[in-house]
Specification:
Two copies of one chain form a homodimer. Helix content of chain A is 48%, strand content 12%. Chain A has 304 residues and is an alpha/beta fold.
């Protein structure tokens, strides 16, 4: 594959950062890969894993050489990080991020920007429930979507960044940050909130032991525990920085849940059936779009 | 393996019934397997698939020979079915079911029972989002739990039924029907209700298109669409027949969700973090108990 950026710097050696380093290396998208992490332990692990050409805990010292800097850190860490690195960036370089919330990142970074660098907010719709440098893998972004939210100034820099994500196997969609935050509230943030909530509810029930919850989880509960095992810092920051959109979707959800509760209480089988039938079609479309496996139970039980 | 029952009759050729037939055949648990289904089309398919030694749409005609009759039909179909078959059963035979709700099944069947047959309510905690005779497979029950709810009269018949389920690869737990319904409300029924609800909410939102929901579903939403694709008739019946336990868990869930909503609205990051951290441990325990894969994303994206 073609080198898209001569020098890239990935800040943050977690699931996303370490997957980016692996993917860029395997697919030959960068001439030189530098990485940094605020944790000395993570830096040591990145070195052991050999994920980058250079690893330093002093992030600022790595900035001057980079043509692309990717901030792969939780949303809450963006503002101080951007304030530290932007003054050290090379003229003409591109800055991006991978946070799950875009409005708050734009608000944090925009006042710090210089006229001679390009900021392209980004968000790959990919991940697993695992965290840390060992959790990453080169194909994490393959066949997944990446959303970029450039403004007029950064539109041409975004075309180059698009090539980088396409090189990782992703498809790229462009949309304004505010729209991103509404769409992701429905497709990611609220699903996670419901999973975190339900797992907590089940764990706290006095009428059901935790042993029973574990043993009989294959009836549906285990699915929720996967996303409820995701990084708590990252998810705290998502909810703190995408309040409005999350609360709007949660309120709609509670309205719909109340309607189904009422149908259950009054024994309205027809309403339940109608609702349950309409939700089948969207699964089929997700499978047809290549966004999930058609294997029953996600193929995890080795059926067939 | 040892034959546990000379003659078994499986009524209902769906996911569960057809998996039972396949599993009993592969593992040599029955001398002779008969099946029936109220749908002529399903009966024809069962014959084509060669899943049983004998397939008849006239269920009652098959009862006299059976040592074990398994009612693998939705909860709502149990009462009329039991009324039809119990008078035709052989003395000493065992009757069981596989419904996700046990109290309602006991209430429906008990008044119809004869003194010379044994009724052991049962529920295998296993399934997929797919339905019908082609969806079944012999290993569906392997390493899953099966709950049996015998009373004093049927306790010894239940020991034989336990061997049958163990022969299919399951572990068997005994508990009263009422307790089963509370435990399953938390571990299966409410998770399904939330998934059905959320998928409906997302599909109905005017601010997010269905195309966007499909494209960006890998952020969490796709997990919910799997269980929201489950059989609508079966799930309608579950909610109609386990009202009290389901509504109690739903109310607890809504309380907990409201508390997290409030933390989001007030920007209480500490409360969110604390909650999100406590839900990680249960995932680990489920994996350790062999009830889910440790592979990230359920292994479906071919990582690693």
């Amino acid at each position: 594959m073609t080198v898209i950026y001569q020098n890239i710097l990935i800040i943050g050696g977690g699931l996303i950062g370490s997957s980016l380093a692996r993917g860029a290396r395997v697919r030959g998208l960068a001439g030189h890969i530098a990485m940094s992490d605020k944790s000395a332990e993570v830096c040591a692990r990145l070195k052991d894993l050999g994920l980058a050409d250079r690893v330093e805990s002093n992030t600022v010292s790595l900035c001057a050489d980079a043509d692309l800097i990717i901030m792969a850190v939780p949303t809450g860490a963006i503002a101080p990080l951007a304030a530290a690195i932007i003054p050290a960036m090379k003229a003409g370089a591109t800055l991006t991020d991978v946070c799950s919330v875009k409005g708050a990142v734009v608000d944090a970074v925009t006042p710090l920007l210089r006229g001679d660098i390009h900021f392209v907010p980004g968000h790959p719709i990919a991940g697993t429930e695992n965290s840390g440098p060992d959790a990453g893998f080169s194909e994490l972004f393959h066949e997944r979507w990446c959303i970029l939210c450039p403004d007029d100034e950064s539109a041409s820099a975004a075309l180059n960044l698009q090539k980088f994500w396409e090189g990782l196997g992703s498809q790229v969609a462009f949309m304004p940050a505010a729209r991103h935050d509404v769409v992701l509230a429905a497709t990611s943030h609220v699903p996670h909130l419901l999973a975190f909530t339900l797992v907590g509810t089940a764990v706290d029930m006095e009428t059901v032991t935790n042993n029973e919850v574990v043993k009989f989880s294959a009836g549906g509960f285990r699915d929720f525990t996967r996303i409820a095992a995701s990084d708590p810092v990252m998810w705290r920051d998502v909810f703190l920085t995408n309040q409005d959109a999350v609360l709007e979707v949660v309120d709609r959800f509670i309205e719909d849940l109340s309607a189904l509760k009422r149908a259950i209480r009054w024994g309205d089988g027809e309403q339940l059936f109608k609702h349950f039938e309409k939700t089948r079609d969207i699964r089929r479309r997700i499978i047809d779009a290549g966004q999930d496996t058609a294997e029953p139970n996600f193929g995890r039980d080795g059926e067939g």
